[in-house]
């Protein structure tokens, strides 16, 4: 979910400042006729009106009349794929589910948003040989159209200036829709499309969204969509000033000359909410409008990895990919626990979030002049020596007036800075395990320190009669001395639904990025949203650059290029770490292929390409799709599931993940396509997971004018292991001396089936 800066209590009412009340139990609203989504597969007609009429006939067959069918209908999905959303009683939905043309029927689930220096940081990977670089080589993404499904956009922001832009691409069929505080004229050559969708969410809310709490238009109300849009394709902004950062900084998006199309399907209700029905409609129209890339920083709420959560809501993305549109999703913000990754379908790119080489550091000075460094976004002024007190929980908020309060992270919740500020505290020190997640406002002395430093300060407080501390404003520390890490909030693999498909795919900076805010009265920080929400548009923007540089590459080829050229180190050569209760060296379940290297991705040498056959294989293996369902999905009656002997392990993803290796040898097949020099010879370099035996055949891959594809097998055995293990990690690299095409290899033994390790 989006990481709202400000911590617990932000945006609430005005409770009694002397106490913290337990939140009331809220009974979820359940409509009498909830919204259901009915998926029918590929469109059977080129005319959208005929598609919509066929939907009405199906609904009429269940509800009994055309009038009832029209009253029930919420959306027709009639462009990119066929289906509809309708208000139905559960018994009606069950009857419709059994209709012979219906492939899938799902309830309209709620979704949430998963939520500068970035490009300097990623540019550190560049070498003199790549001086032109992907950015210049693709003309900064000029001509690419990036669709963003999110919370809207604040079109007046300078990052959406269209100065110097050429005409709108001829492929574009979208439009700008007027509404509350948004006119069609608010679009320009940069922001070429803006639409909004709310009928699906409104139908399932007790009180409909209205203009007193939201903009009933493409205009952004909470800032999330504006930040995502600026990150993916914001224009250059020069001479920025921000406390703690160097003057004259430049802000830009990944593809600063690309065009943006906003599809507002998320709304500023209940902390930020979207519905599957609205998101599907956004996909449907985006496919028809002519976007090249879709950046979708949203995901499910459910902790149960059911079929409709993991696969069915990703079906529109499959139709987009089948039409050449790359779709980028976040891995989610459920980390650092394992098996929390969301958006796990192999046709999408799933993104983890890392930090930059930038620390926002402030100093705590004790009254004995000892100084300690912590993390903060406090912009000043300096808080002079002030009484400091220790508290274990929220019970002492009535005694904090005029003091700095220190809390150690425990099971009991700690009061947020807003609550403390309302009760008269002048500062707060939070002691916790190391984390890049900052939830402090910029206007209140609030600082995070680790347990080691916290223990030293606590010892001083215990041995001093009237301890005092001083807190300075933050300063940005940038460079090699600041470790890059996968954020603790970034969701981790493996996928509990289909562990043989590695997720996440890739990692990118997404934590505490400096992006523009929308003008509201509640601004407290420039770093409003953080997490995989913000890492997603970083990758989507790089995808747009790659599409311009390599217009014939498929979405799978682009994904492979990004994954196989990624780094397991930061730009300074230091190993990436992963935040958690105990920080560790990061592995494939933290970051997929690694940290994106945008320059190497433009020249990967080989790619692991995929097409609809691979995706059908996945649906049949992991999601129990039948021949009938895949035929309807593809619009081709001859499309069938592969034979029962086919293994999900052989889907041509740029990774190898074996979750159930027994004593026998697993043989996995992959195929690579040469996109480098025509005459090339590649040899394998194997880093076997600890204790496992890995062999590759053949021992070299030879490409020439007549051979652009080559298949190979990887044989993996359990070595000396005789018991169930956890996962071990290694890699397989194909190298021609110039290109190193690397995929992660993850293996776990399973000698006893369904055994809790």
UniProtKB/TrEMBL annotation:
**Active site, per annotation:** 150, 224, 533
Q: Where is the composition biased (Gly residues)?
A: 1-14
This protein's superkingdom?
A: Eukaryota
- Name the SUPFAM superfamilies on file: Subtilisin-like (SSF52743)
Asked if the record carries the keyword Signal, the reply is yes
Residues covered by the Peptidase S8/S53 domain: 141-569
* UniProt protein name: Uncharacterized protein
